[in-house]
């Protein structure tokens, strides 16, 4: 006991005095399969892993829940004791607000990872802690797929509660647009079964786009689809050099109106010294469903932009995460340790070619030579939008259905707090340029990529009614602001 107290004391004195009793007090209220993990346990490090250690939350205890009742009991206990708490799915959330969680309880959801397909095969009920890669695999075994984020190691729910941008969104809309119902543990530990009609349609609305603010989702029932034609996907990839910037973005702009729901385009600006020792390269992938080769009507123009290299491949829907470097084993997007990674997102209608040159140059400067930021990347997301725009803008809390693209520098460096200021200054500078080039004064910052320094309007939308509605719902469902570490709605 003294050893444990010392370990916890090293974390925080006040928290130590309270949380040292958690095993005795909370333990008997949990299911036999649940586990309380304290800092002196070797499992604590794994349980509190963060993909990005920038602004990470500080936990003094982890409750590895096994049932939804475990989640509810842990929330009630945390409230009784006035301990802060946070649900953790895939540990990929990055936002400054997380650092406001000092010495609280992590509610680790990873064992809520089941997938049960309905008898008619049209929906699945899915545990609130499942990772995207595990969900894709479980459905694939039954010839099904669902709209999920593209990264295997994020959770299914983390992205979904903010929208869930996805390669299948051109056909079906965002991941949140597929929801039938959710099991939710509210901020005061009550269990609710929420759907479009029960118990409060506005709560269902808010969970689609601002969901992290309203409870902990222990499971969802969501639409799923038959995998068509063996799930074939083809991709063609290009690497371009510095001189191609203008041509490339001009070509991409012309491609938009012709982009069908089954074609995805994703780009990265990054350094690859074996290809270009001096300048960043632009890596672009075009992916198409149901074909054995990406249709030349989409590739021809990109081939003529003078790429350094062209490659192509064929696989299935399951391979997409790996092609985009979002697979479980990827060292940049899944298995990093002690790396700070900050996003500065901007939603856009189209590319401003002059701006793209400016931000390319700014990115080249900050990542040059031995810069601590030289492993950074600049992401360019051009997922198809037909399914997204088919859903009325006011039918969910998500405010940015009008956008066609998301661009953001992802500044990465070995965690070193003395570099945070520079990263933020440079990242914000690039973001300002992107915004100025868009011709709009309104920054659209996708909640799941937001840095945390944005205004509520910049994350939740500029329409007055939308923010007012969210504030009223926040007052109703979380008046004590217990769920306030991930882009909290002000009340
Ligand atoms: C490499 C990478 C790839 C990404 N790809 C995509 C993508 O394809 N599409 C997309 O839309 N976004 C994507 N994102 C952004 C992603 O949506 C956010 O990072 C999200 O926060 C990740 O959720 P998580 O559960 O993995 O992280 P966590 O840090 O575990 O959770 C983030 C937040 O979500 C809350 N949360 C998690 N699970 C639940 C739950 N069950 N109930 C209530 N709250 C919950 C947590 O409390 C926390 O506040 C990506 C991010 C990264 C870093």
From TrEMBL:
<dbReference type="InterPro" id="IPR016169">
    <property type="entry name" value="FAD-bd_PCMH_sub2"/>
</dbReference>
<dbReference type="InterPro" id="IPR016167">
    <property type="entry name" value="FAD-bd_PCMH_sub1"/>
</dbReference>
<dbReference type="InterPro" id="IPR006094">
    <property type="entry name" value="Oxid_FAD_bind_N"/>
</dbReference>
<feature type="domain" description="FAD-binding PCMH-type">
    <location>
        <begin position="54"/>
        <end position="227"/>
    </location>
</feature>
<keyword id="KW-0732">Signal</keyword>
<dbReference type="GO" id="GO:0016491">
    <property type="term" value="F:oxidoreductase activity"/>
</dbReference>
<dbReference type="Pfam" id="PF01565">
    <property type="entry name" value="FAD_binding_4"/>
</dbReference>
<keyword id="KW-0560">Oxidoreductase</keyword>
<dbReference type="InterPro" id="IPR016166">
    <property type="entry name" value="FAD-bd_PCMH"/>
</dbReference>
<feature type="signal peptide">
    <location>
        <begin position="1"/>
        <end position="18"/>
    </location>
</feature>
<dbReference type="InterPro" id="IPR036318">
    <property type="entry name" value="FAD-bd_PCMH-like_sf"/>
</dbReference>
<protein>
    <submittedName>
        <fullName>Putative FAD-dependent oxygenase</fullName>
    </submittedName>
</protein>
<dbReference type="InterPro" id="IPR012951">
    <property type="entry name" value="BBE"/>
</dbReference>
<dbReference type="GO" id="GO:0071949">
    <property type="term" value="F:FAD binding"/>
</dbReference>
<keyword id="KW-0285">Flavoprotein</keyword>
<comment type="similarity">
    <text>Belongs to the oxygen-dependent FAD-linked oxidoreductase family.</text>
</comment>
<keyword id="KW-0274">FAD</keyword>
<dbReference type="Pfam" id="PF08031">
    <property type="entry name" value="BBE"/>
</dbReference>
<dbReference type="InterPro" id="IPR050416">
    <property type="entry name" value="FAD-linked_Oxidoreductase"/>
</dbReference>
């Amino acid at each position: 006991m003294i050893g444990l107290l010392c370990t916890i004391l090293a974390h925080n004195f006040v928290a130590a005095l309270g949380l040292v009793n958690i095993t005795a007090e909370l333990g008997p209220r949990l299911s036999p399969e649940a586990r309380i993990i304290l800092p002196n346990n070797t499992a604590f490090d794994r349980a509190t892993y963060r993909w990005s250690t920038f602004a990470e939350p500080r936990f003094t205890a982890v409750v590895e829940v096994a049932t939804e009742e475990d989640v509810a009991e842990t929330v009630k206990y945390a409230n009784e004791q006035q301990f802060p708490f946070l649900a953790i799915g895939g540990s990929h959330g990055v936002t400054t607000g997380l650092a406001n969680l000092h010495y609280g309880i992590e509610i680790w959801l990873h064992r809520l990872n089941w997938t049960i397909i309905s008898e008619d095969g049209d929906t699945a009920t899915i545990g609130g802690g499942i990772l995207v890669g595990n969900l894709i695999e479980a459905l694939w075994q039954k010839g099904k797929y669902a709209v999920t984020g593209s990264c295997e190691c994020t959770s299914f729910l983390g992205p979904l509660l903010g929208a869930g941008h996805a390669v299948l969104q051109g056909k079906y809309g965002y991941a949140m647009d597929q929801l039938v119902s959710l099991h939710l543990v509210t901020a005061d530990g009550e269990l609710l079964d929420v759907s479009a009609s029960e118990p409060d349609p506005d709560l269902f609305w808010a969970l689609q786009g601002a969901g992290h603010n309203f409870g902990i989702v222990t499971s969802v029932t969501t639409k799923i689809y038959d995998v068509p034609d063996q799930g074939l996907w083809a991709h063609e990839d290009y690497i371009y050099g510095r001189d191609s910037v203008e041509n490339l973005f001009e070509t991409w702009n012309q491609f938009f109106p012709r982009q069908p729901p089954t074609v995805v385009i994703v780009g990265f600006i990054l350094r690859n010294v074996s290809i270009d020792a001096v300048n960043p390269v632009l890596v672009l992938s075009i992916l198409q469903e149901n074909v054995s080769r990406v249709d030349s009507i989409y590739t021809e123009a990109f081939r003529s932009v003078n790429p350094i290299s062209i490659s192509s491949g064929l696989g299935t829907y399951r391979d997409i995460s790996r092609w985009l470097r979002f697979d479980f084993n990827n060292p940049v997007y899944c298995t990093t340790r002690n790396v700070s990674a900050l996003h500065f997102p901007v939603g856009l209608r189209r590319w401003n070619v002059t701006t793209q040159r400016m931000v390319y140059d700014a990115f080249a400067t900050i990542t040059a030579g031995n810069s601590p930021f030289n492993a950074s990347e600049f992401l360019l997301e051009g997922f198809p939008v037909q399914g997204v725009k088919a859903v009325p803008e006011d039918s969910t809390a998500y405010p940015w259905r009008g956008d066609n693209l998301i661009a953001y520098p992802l500044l990465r460096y070995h965690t070193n707090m003395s570099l945070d200021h520079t990263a933020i200054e440079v990242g914000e500078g690039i973001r300002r340029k992107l915004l100025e080039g868009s011709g709009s004064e309104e920054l659209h910052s996708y909640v799941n990529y937001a840095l945390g320094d944005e205004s509520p309007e910049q994350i939740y939308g500029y329409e007055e009614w939308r923010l007012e509605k969210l504030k009223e719902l926040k007052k109703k469902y979380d008046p004590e602001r217990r769920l306030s570490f991930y882009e909290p709605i002000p009340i």
